[in-house]
Amino acid sequence: MDVGFWEMFMLAVLALLIFGPERLPGIARSVGQTIGRIRREATNTFAALSDEAELSELREFSSELQNEREHLRDLTRLDSGAGPARTKRTGPPRFDPHAT
């Protein structure tokens, strides 16, 4: 909603005629305080929603990490229990001059 200068001017003149110069400052103050409260509540609400969304994303990420950890544990259990015993190699294979 775009309100220009002349619209605001006409509203001010109309308010001055309806409420009078004595009551207009008090009404303007009340309207300003109400708008301020509404803005603060909106800011607090958006902050709370943002925090909750971030917390939800962290919970989802944590759940995914736990699932991956369980998957890796299952894979290591399968590798350690299946097939012949594996020996660890340390370094490159030995050179055998008579192999070729």
Helices, strands, pairings?
Layout (H helix, E strand, L loop, with lengths): L4 H77 L19
Largest sheet: none
Mean model confidence by pLDDT = 85
Q: Beta fraction of the residues?
A: under 5%
User: Ranges with pLDDT <50 over ≥5 residues?
Assistant: none
Helical amount: over 70%
Any idea what the shape is? rod-shaped
- For the CA atoms, what is the radius of gyration? 36 Å
Compute the separation of the termini in Å: 86 Å
Category by helix and strand content: mainly alpha
Number of helices: 1
User: Care to count the β-strands?
Assistant: 0
Explained architecture:
The chain has 100 residues and is mostly helical. It has a domain of 66 residues. Helices cover 77% and strands 0% of the residues. The chain is built from one helix and no strands. The longest helix has 77 residues. The chain is rod-shaped. The model has no long low-confidence stretch (mean pLDDT 85).
Identify the notable features of this structure and list them briefly.
mainly alpha
What's this, in brief?
Helices cover 77% and strands 0% of the residues. It has 100 residues and is mostly helical.
